[in-house]
Amino acid sequence: MTDYVSTLSIDIGLIGPELALLIAAAVILLLIFTRKADRFATAIGLIGLVVSMVLTVRQWDVKVGGFSGMVTVDQFAVLFKLLFAVASGLTLLLAERYFHAKHIARPEFTALLLVSTMGMMVMAGTTDLIVIFLGLEIMSVPLYVMAGFNRRSLESNESGIKYFIMGAFATGFLLMGIALIYGASETTDLRRIVTDFSYIATNAKLFLFTGAALMMVGFGFKVGAVPFHSWIPDVYQGAPTPVTAFFSVAPKAAGFAALLRIFAYGLKDLGALSDVWWILAVLTMTVGNILALRQENVKRMLAYSSIAHAGYMLVALAVGGADAASAVIFYLIGYTLFNLGGFTVVALLETRAGSRADFSEMAGLSKAHPYLTATLALFMFSLSGFPPTVGFFGKFYLFSAAVKGGFIWLTVIGVMNSFVSVYYYLRVVKVSYFDQIEGRFVPAPLSAGVLFVLIVTAVGTLGFGLFPDNVLEIARRAIQAFA
Amino acid sequence: MEAVQPNVGFVFGLFAAIIITSALLVVTLKNIFHCALALIVCLTGVAGIFVLLHAEFLAAVQVLIYVGAVSVLIIFSVMLTSNLASRRIVQTNQNALVAGFAALIFGAGALLLLKLHDIWPKAGSALPDDNVMTIGKLLMTDYMLPFEVVSVLMLAAMIGAIVLARGERS
Fold first, then answer.
1. What top-tier enzyme class does this entry carry (chain A) (predicted)?
2. Do B28 and B88 share a domain, yes or no?
3. B118 lies in a domain?
């Protein structure tokens, strides 16, 4: 048996970031019987995430594969892993306050969040389709539970079960797609598909196309592309708000990480897919924006807005090439910050008794919380793409890559959609600044954790908007891993 | 072996008939408990097809997981849910005709496509007799990481199920 062992390349250091999260989750589960386990859980979770981030950053200049090609450490993976860890840490801080106020504190939540984040990291750090699939499942299963975490709320139950059924359905499509790609290429490793592409494309073109189409459907569900978006509004509205915040950024980023790996690297030479992405992008942003216009609930509005943002990001896949890919990574970094920030304010307001996060409840907010309202306005400006926020540069880089690639109509539709979105984002600002309320506004107490989340997201939204070149440079270097 | 080689086409047809009949029963029977039993027959038939194709490992997995675990789980849930086993259920709704038509179109289209284009890649050589052993070795070498990572998935599913199912803490 020695000959098998010798061919194995076990390098624990390569999977350090994932292991740190897994160990933290295991420690939480072991300490769950203790009193004040909730406090412990958050602290241990944060420590695990910080250790994971440090280990990830140390991998920045490494570009190696390990575990018989199942793990790939490159700058693309490192950047995405950092993004997941940041989103997860901010969610954890936000969730502690929210769950405490809603009396649904449970230490298992932290463990599930960590395992889910680990799944995303596995997904981003590989070129093997089987491992991408496993990472996606490890990400999704805790998410289903987290959506239904508020068991006393019927809406939360509905959210969990809907997400589970739709997610499982999408998984079927994805797995079928992977199977067909394997049938066409006799490998699940994207690097080998790239090497043998011309051979595979001539011998099993139909297979390759069908497989790619099915994978599109599978990931389309995960990132919330129209026409696979039907689950999003109910799931986002029903889930506890910190969980919704996490849903709207992290799994979306993970989905795009996998999409970029597969379609901007593995199958980049498969022509005609660009047209499909074109249609998906236009549908996604238009439907998301138009449906967002009519919402009376802020959470639901943000759910439709997240569909619209997925649409903008899909533009990059239609355009293809390094410019568009680095632009979408930049967009994801910014989107993670300002969308999490927006949801943080909503979650904070929702900690007040009886709140359902409707638009009308925001009236009078600026009198009670002037700074909070200013921050909320900043996030809304960034979501709608005003300079000098990071939201503006995200769209700017994305659409200039599209223009450079000759996608004029796509750009025009995208910019028009941005204009439409201004209406519903600024409605939040208008209601919270100018609308009158009867009686007194019930204030929402801040906690240190939530304050930290707000500061990080607001500084990021403004700071990355003032110095976009540095962030774009990092995104560019991440994309070089594909070369 | 040559002497006792059965007619593969005949055996395949037999299994296919079993699968299709039991699958139809799954979606038409009025008693959900009977549906679950028909599902077991259907899944066992699929295991038979796997054996026929020399995919012994898949056949074993099929029996262990689908026939053994999934079906037993379904039967347990039916029996534990009050009055479900004795209730008559309606398995169709107003979409049944449309759905059936769509399935028919899709099935006919797929068949036509397969008749017109010979798109399936052929296996280069026959499967070795010890293919189960090969799979085992691969799982412990090249695919060791995915194999181990699956356990994290199981762990997550287990925690999730417990969190959602257990009673409120006082």
1. translocase
2. yes
3. no
Do A134 and B144 lie within an 8 Å CB cutoff?
no
Task: Please report residues of A whose CB lies closer than 8 A to that of B143.
Answer: 68, 70, 130
Q: Which domain holds residue B10?
A: 2-92
Work out how many domains chain B is built from and give that number.
2
Cβ pairs A/B, distance under 8 A = 87
Residues B154, B88: one domain?
no
pTM equals: 0.91
Residue appearing with tokens 């079928």: A176
Distances (CA, A) of A280 to A6, A168, A171, A219, A416: 47, 21, 19, 12, 16
List CB contacts of A64: < 8 A, sequence separation 6 or more: A14, A72, A73
**B63 and B18 within one domain:** yes
Mutation to test the B interface, candidates A6, A102, A137, most B Cβ within 10 Å:
A137
- Helix ranges (DSSP H) in A186-204: 190-195, 197-203
Q: What interhelical angle do A390-404 and A322-350 show, nearest 10?
A: 150
Residues B79 and B157 in one domain: no
Buried b (16+ CB within 10 A) or exposed e, A177-214: bbebbbbbbebbbbebbbeebeebbeebeebbbbbbeb
Closest CA–CA distance from residue B68 to any residue of chain A (Å): 21
Whether residues B8 and B81 fall in one domain = yes
Q: Is A76 within 8 Å of A124 (Cβ atoms)?
A: yes
Angstrom distance (rounded) from CA B79 to CA B87:
12
User: In this structure, what token pair is assigned to residue A56?
Assistant: 């990830």
Q: Give the up-direction half-sphere exposure of residue A208: CA atoms within 13 A in the CB hemisphere.
A: 27
Token representation of residue A391: 């939201």
CATH code, domain carrying B9: 1.20.120.1200
Question: Which of A68, A130, A134 has its CB closest to that of B153?
Answer: A134
Tens digit of pLDDT for each residue in A389-406? 999 999 999 999 999 999
Residue B57 lies in a domain: yes
The interface predicted TM-score of the complex, written ipTM, equals 0.87
